[in-house]
Amino acid sequence: MTRHTHHSIDYVELHVDDVAAAKAFYGDVFGWAFNDYGPTYAGIRAPDGDGEVGGITTGDQRGSGSPLVLMISDDLEASLAAVRGGGGEVVEGPFDYPGGRRLHFRDPSGNVLGVFEPSDG
């Protein structure tokens, strides 16, 4: 089982035009398997089948088309305070989602990343 480490990179979201088409592409080209969460989101299964390493989604988060890198947190409120204290700007959240709570922030160089706290702690 994967051990998740506080503030390590844990998940990457790819923003796509069409989830079904992206699943077909990544499945055919790289052999990826998915967990379906509806027409606008699919989780990318870990190679060993234990958990997920990322997701593909449609929606307003696409921005420049860059992937959204997500770090895991043991305490989202402490992560929020650290982002603000370090000069980052919270651009969304914190908000609830089916897997827990998360926020998106812009670092001082303009990169947008996310931090999430899973609902199972």
UniProtKB/TrEMBL annotation:
SUPFAM superfamilies in the record: Glyoxalase/Bleomycin resistance protein/Dihydroxybiphenyl dioxygenase
Pfam (any one): Glyoxalase
Superkingdom assignment: Bacteria
Matching InterPro entries: Anthracycline_SecMetBiosynth, Glyas_Bleomycin-R_OHBP_Dase, Glyas_Fos-R_dOase_dom, VOC_core
Transmembrane segments: none
Boundaries of every VOC domain copy: 8-118
Name this polypeptide is given: VOC family protein
